[in-house]
Design a protein that fits this description.
heterodimer; A: mainly beta; Immunoglobulin-like; 6-stranded mixed sheet; 5-stranded antiparallel sheet; 51% strand; B: mainly beta; 7-stranded mixed sheet; 0% helix; 57% strand; globular
């Protein structure tokens, strides 16, 4: 079973704090790991993604840390803002082997950033 | 970024009727599109892979005769929920992959909220 396990289920942080969401995967054939942000009633939007050949990728306040040996990756949101309050999904996919880039999603983390 | 649209955004129908949801890639072509269903406070569940020019591939447990998928062109896929029942009420989302340099990623539509009375 191809699974991506995500934690925590929910997270509350204060404005300006750091939000950390963790994911772990089982299938070593996964080679692309995107994070999506979803606001209520909207479709998910790509936030940031990483390949396993790098250990970290940073885009603005968002950073992905990747540990290939542990099969874990995490999203760090620096200087968290109330506007970051949303549900975050990690995902994984194989970009070769005829998978057609089918995504396997984590269960999601509801982030609330208090003002 | 790439844009994927869905129509309608919201639909209410009576039990037993059929509902068609359209998914369009507005500024790129997609030979493959994906259809997901999402229940409240839950993750996205892949229903099927829509393939242009061939039959859709359904995930285990998804009834292909109930959820008809047609990938009519390189920019349009449709999902028809046939003989809808209240348990089909959900948020339906499509996505399409786009290749950019070394990476390909999925771009999601805004979703369609289906309520079956």
């Amino acid at each position: 079973q191809q699974q991506v396990k995500q934690s925590p289920q929910s997270l509350i942080v204060q404005k300006g704090g750091i939000s950390i969401i963790n994911c772990a995967y089982e299938n070593t054939a996964f080679d692309y790991f995107p994070w999506y942000q979803q606001f209520p009633g909207k479709g998910p939007a790509l936030l940031i993604a990483i390949r396993p050949d790098v250990s970290e990728k940073k885009e603005g306040r968002f950073t992905i840390s990747f540990n290939k040996s542990a099969k874990q990756f995490s999203l760090h949101i620096m200087d968290s803002q109330p506007g970051d309050s949303a549900t975050y999904f990690c995902a994984a996919t194989m970009t070769s082997g005829g998978s057609n880039y089918k995504l396997t999603f984590g269960k999601g983390t509801l982030l609330t950033v208090n003002p | 970024g790439a844009v994927v649209s869905q129509h309608p955004s919201r639909v209410i129908c009576k039990s037993g009727t059929s509902v068609k949801i359209e998914c369009r890639s507005l500024d790129f072509q997609a030979t493959t599109m994906f259809w997901y269903r999402q229940f409240p406070k839950q993750s996205l569940m892949l229903m099927a892979t829509s393939n242009e020019g061939s039959k859709a591939t359904y995930e285990q447990g998804v009834e292909k005769d109930k959820f008809l998928i047609n990938h009519a062109s390189l920019t349009l896929s449709t999902l028809t929920v046939t003989s809808a029942h209240p348990e089909d009420s959900s948020f339906y989302i499509c996505s399409a992959p786009l290749g950019t340099s070394m990476f390909e990623t999925q771009y999601f539509g805004p979703g369609t909220r289906l309520l079956v009375l």
